[in-house]
Request: fold
Amino acid sequence: MPGFLHVTAADVSAVGPEAFLCVVGIALVLLDAFARSLRPSFPYLTLGGIAVANFLGGYPTGSAFAGAIETSELTRFVDLLALAAVALATLGGGALLARDRKNQGEFYALLLWSAAGLMLMVKGNDLLVVFLGLELMSIALYVLAAWDREVAEATEAGMKYFLMGALASTFLLFGVATVYGRLGSTRLTTLKGALASGEGFSDPMLQIGLLAILAALAFKIALVPFHSWAPDVYQGMTTPAVAFLSTAPKAAAVVVAVKVLGTLAPSGLGEPWRPLLALLAILSILFGNVVALAQRDLKRMLAYSGIAQMGYVAIGLATFDGAAFEGILVFLAGYLATNIAAFLAVAALSNGEKEAHPLADLAGMGRNRPFAASVLTLAMLSLTGLPPTVGFIGKLLVFRAAIDAGLMTLALVGIFGSLVSAGYYLRVVYFLWMKEPSREVAAPEEDVLSGAAYILVSVAMLYLGAFPRLLLDLARVAARSLPY
Reply:
């Protein structure tokens, strides 16, 4: 403990991005309360804070705070994903927030605090640091879910997310306490050494504790059967917030799951973890895709789609080798750009104060709002996994890794799920471009920030799909920093 309390310059550098994001968030809340005339500048202040945090993120790799935090190319990769998600949500949501005239400072602050929490969670080499980061992320997201408190659906979404999230946090804390009670440490590197012989798995209480930790992470990823919160929360939250919630926090939880699984199985993933993860993958892919087919609300459809998409990630977790890690990271980066594009396009395809959730309301939008409709179309193609989009590259790498590892059944389930998903993704495209308009739509407001967001996500989906070398190199370097 004395070593932990002795803070060095390296320690400060390791958590510099998170600390700066928290400070910017506090400043935005204060400005929103005492200098409301500055509200139009909040998106720019947020983007400036993200840029500085990214600069501070160029820290040297290594350990900090007596080994409780570890920085690596992998944590840098997740930092970039988190900051990109906040930046895109800020760009795409600025016009909507200005139109609704809500507490904009709170919205941007909650995004920044949530990003700080997930970045800290990934850097944690101690289960207590992981818990601290997860709670910072989760509490900000609970408030963000109910941010539009004048809308009953938003209040309901916030309450449901809080109750289910609190249960998941309880599971995590129980698991951490159990592991500490049985092994005398919460440090991942120490636990890895203690479990290397495999003798610790004979302890039933230790097994229960480890399962509780994985269950909590499965909740954040929204794998079946820990998915029940997702549809209602997605539907009730304001759309730019869902764009962030559905991407970066899941990516962080997946990376933490990889670190925890590597601790549990330092010599390779075997019984009972691989069959368990394979089961979660199959259930998530089949359930998510089949239920999404029956949805008539776009945001609920994307919620069930997200469950299936994380099922593909679970295939990579079950495979658990270097190629699978690389595929997971490429998949997560592509999913982040694609899903944010989808939700920002949904926010743009609105009529007055009402966002276009029912699929029927999308009819003819390709003619009325071709720019946003084109972005949504591209997102649907990428989620389906069609070339030359980045969604194709991510699925290809994950499925190929599973086949090379002898998990042909999992790969076939993933391919089957992708074929099923085409039914509801392409249905959106049909409504946009083939159906006659079902309502009058006002001319879209000119907004430079939203336009920049649409261009960025569109370029990312196409460029990273057609020319994936840059993303592949980044993912390979990040995956190699894992000691598994």
Q: What stands out?
A: Residues 268-484 form one domain. The mean pLDDT is 86. Strands lie at 62-64, 69-71, 350-351, 354-355. The two ends are 28 Å apart (CA to CA).
